[in-house]
């Protein structure tokens, strides 16, 4: 097996395929990254991935190289798992996908199954097929196999997926061959055409993002009428038509590498097909507004922020990852510093990434250190260590016992008893 791309999707795919007993070679043009991977050093923070990486290197099941053409002939299945960053219009940029397809086409010598793992616009499978065919006149098949991984639980999601989606281009049993590979996972396998599989990925992420913006819109009303947004969400989830896993927790909105990019891409796909996806456009607007409302909440309480010192807990867009792409922390910290606030930030794993783009911010070695002498605490990411921290020590460390909680990790009644002024979302 070959996996092209050792980013988040590609590395998880490669390591998990190897864990199932397959021999896998992972390809990337980044020589430094490849050398680190050969030593068992993961370029991403993801619970469990480095342990599996080292285990399968030792077992001789996973290898890393920068030269694709060296391994194409010996690979039964080739996965394309390169990045598809948004372009200026929000559309997914396919230059890396098509570059990989071209390289594959130039290197093929016999029948292969080529699998798109990257999140790509509708029609990309056919485009990859045409690109490969320009350079290779023999038989091959292109299949779409979108990923549904959650950062922070990617290994678990890969090994125990809710479903496996395979889009077939109508070839000689390519989808069935890929399905055979996944049978050991004992999960539902849905085989569709290419376009349907590509749409399922965008539709799923956009729908989940819609739930988040819906919950945050409800939270605004809850604050005004005296309702508790968390209890409202719990009551909704008890409805079997909605479900206990629905994304209905009020907070600072969605971020990361998937939801913002995929929502915008689906909006652009709709526009390209002469349709205004008004619901998704509003989902984006609500998501952006939610962060501004939180900043306003801080300003309304503290008044003049110039010279104030604020402790910020959480920089990654969600817990159990160091991913800061489209993270609420970036927007909020930028707004606070522009108002003259001195920010002292802490995160268990994401400090290095934020420091590279915000060197002017001070970073603390611990959550408690961030609070020392601060005029208030601002919580942006719901790491478990924040939920379990000694709040009496935090109260003593702060100049004023004021907490702005963007993730509702504490109970308002408990915080009041402990002597905090506590401001959360939708409560």
* Terminal residue distance: 51 Å
- Major sheet: order of its strands? 3-2-1-4-5-6-7-8
Number of strands: 14
Poorly predicted spans: none
The main sheet comes to: 8 strands, mixed
Predict the CATH topology of the largest domain. Answer: Rossmann fold
CATH superfamily of the largest domain: NAD(P)-binding Rossmann-like Domain
- Evaluate the radius of gyration: 23 Å
Give the C-level CATH assignment of the largest domain: Alpha Beta
Shape by Cα distribution: globular
| Structural class by SSE content | alpha/beta
Number of helices: 17
How would you explain this protein's 3D organization?
The chain has 427 residues and is α/β, with parallel strands linked by helices. The chain is built from 17 helices and 14 strands. The strands form two sheets. It has an eight-stranded mixed β-sheet, with helices on both faces. Strands 11-10-9-12-13-14 form a six-stranded parallel β-sheet. It has two domains: 186 residues, Rossmann fold; 231 residues, NAD(P)-binding Rossmann-like Domain (Rossmann fold), CATH 3.40.50.720.
